[in-house]
Amino acid sequence: MKQPISLIVNGERHDTLCTPNLTLLEVLRENLQLTGTKHGCELGECGACAVLLGEEPVLSCLVLAMECDGLPITTIEGMKRGAELHPLQAAFADHGAAQCGYCTPGILVTAKALLDRNPAPTRTEVREALSGNLCRCTGYLQIFEAVEAAAGVLREEKR
Amino acid sequence: MSQRPLHIIGKARRRVDGRAKVSGETRFADDLILPRMLFCRLLRSPLPHARIVSIDASRAKALPGVHLVLTG
Lengths: 159, 72
Hints:
The structure holds two protein chains of two kinds. Chain A is built from five helices and five strands; from the N terminus they run ββαβββαααα. A five-stranded mixed β-sheet of chain A has the order 2-1-5-3-4, sandwiched between helices. The radius of gyration of chain B is 26 Å and the shape is elongated. Chains A and B meet through helix 2 and helix 3 of A and helix 1 of B.
């Protein structure tokens, strides 16, 4: 039976109806039409569906939507600062870190969670934070370089 | 010939679709929702190596909203 839930997505409240078996991924993409979050393996292996639940990256294909009732969620659609790209997004575009772009939204929100808690991660820490996000075409080097470049920009902003 | 500074060659350029890809705006096939769009569902054999003797799709065909059942 469908039940009403409220999700706070990117600071905006969305009221929707869902059955208890729906995943957060399905509700974001199909109920709210926020298709920036990608549907990859549906098994928690690829990281394409990563979103932030509060400050923490979660795999939205493994989270039931009803468990998120009333909780703040950040998706790729909420990363831009108005019309401006977030420094991570700008760095990914500038460093060629998004080739086909399918893994990019999940990687960007996961990297954002990392930089929010650790403004100066080492390469090892970046690799570890993104180890749950598979990329099959760009290659990880550009992605790591982009995250480090964005970390530098964000540190400059805070000065 | 005089040497003029190069502005394009040897420089990294942002791709034309770079901004869309990093902002989640790129539409992949799975992201499209079109009017009168139909959805398909695959039912695969639970056995990796078996001979199909017959397929009875009558119950699937009887479900409301089913337009086509393809077997092979």
